[in-house]
Design brief:
mainly alpha, 4 helices
Length: about 70
């Protein structure tokens, strides 16, 4: 995945997280923090998905809605 696509995916997820009604404020805060860290460190997207799924199973649905599943 190109760096541009990687950043684009992170922005989509971050935007969806902040608008989510499925996550509580702590889950949103933890998720956005992790997304921003991954954005800065430019790490593999698959590992971020695993970390976010540890916060909430909701991310499985979110990734599908955003077209970010394999």
């Amino acid at each position: 995945m190109s760096a541009h696509k990687h950043r684009e995916h992170l922005e989509k997820i971050k935007d969806a997280v902040t608008k989510s009604t499925q996550l509580d404020e702590k889950q949103k805060s933890d998720s956005v923090k992790r997304i921003e860290e991954w954005y800065e460190e430019d790490k593999a997207f698959g590992l971020l998905k695993e970390e976010l799924l540890e916060i909430s199973e909701y991310f499985e649905t979110l990734f599908a809605e955003l077209g970010l599943t394999k």
